[in-house]
Amino acid sequence: MTATEVDQRPDSRPSTNESRHTEVEASRRFARKLLAPSLVALILITQIPFLVTIYYSLQQWNLSRPDIRGFAGLSNYVAVFTNGYFLPSVWATIKIVGGSVIVSLLLGLVMALLLNREFFGRPVARTLMITPFLVMPAAASLVFKWSLFNSEGGIVNWFIGLFGIPPVAWNTDHPVFSVMIVMIWQYTPFFMLLLLAGLQSQDREVLEAADVDGAGAFRKFFFMTLPHLRTYAELAVLLGTILMLQLFDPVNIITKGAGGTKTLPYLLYERAFIGQQVGEAAAYGVVTVVLIIVIATFALRKVFRVFTEEEGR
């Protein structure tokens, strides 16, 4: 064999890329095995009840006459959109949830800006401001109904009475306002937490450079801080909307659905346990879940986008 001859025997060892690909596939298979029990449990907990709800929505089932039960086809869904309850309930839900989200976002922004500053006792103040979000909705509704908004001995009427203003029956004369106040009080801390996370992720060097260039507080806020918070505000609005769409306790405890406060969750409860129309209530539930899924899809996309942007920084 001369010096110019080259050994043409194939290399029996796998290439580096093939080895790496094999390791990645093995890691993915192992991850799937770890996730499989959780996925099965999640399907059993969430999807099977939803399928049962769909089944009930196709049945003619009245609790007052349990012996008469049969297949109803799509008649319950037809009743949902033709009996005159659905659209007013959708409007009540949009009105209460939309107004509560907007006010909670603005108040949450103010609170986040305050907590983003250094001051004595900030950890205590942060804990106190988060507390309303940890209170059970039913407990909060009872406190507001009987302690704050009571027409005879409520704190609000006592306070406005100091200025010569006659007492107001808040729960009956202003039911939408009463429900919204409870929602705003309870969910403003949620908006505050998300916006505060956005403020604390802002690059301090950029703000210091703006100070050196002579930018004032208002210019920094409107041209630097607000654009930075846009993604966090959108995320807060979407997630807050999903949470508030489950609005039931304030309506059930304070107004019983009167005065334009009959939201979709309360309408579902009313048709099932007051009207005793289980099939129709199940149809309302399916329609409500579909609407929430549409909103949740946008929310999840926003969440993934936020995480992707954070990882890319």
Automatic annotation (TrEMBL):
Topological relation to the membrane, as annotated: Multi-pass membrane protein
Q: Which family does it belong to?
A: Belongs to the binding-protein-dependent transport system permease family.
**Where are the annotated segments for Disordered?**
1-24
InterPro entries in UniProt: MetI-like, MetI-like_sf
Task: Please name the GO terms of the biological process aspect recorded for this protein, alphabetically.
Answer: transmembrane transport
Question: Where do the ABC transmembrane type-1 domain residues begin and end?
Answer: 90-299
Q: Name one GO cellular component term.
A: plasma membrane
Residue stretches spanning the membrane? 34-56, 68-86, 92-115, 127-149, 176-197, 229-248, 281-300
Name of protein = Sorbitol/mannitol transport system permease protein
Which keywords are on file for this protein?
A: Cell membrane, Membrane, Transmembrane, Transmembrane helix, Transport
* Superkingdom of origin organism: Bacteria
Location of this chain's protein in the cell: Cell membrane
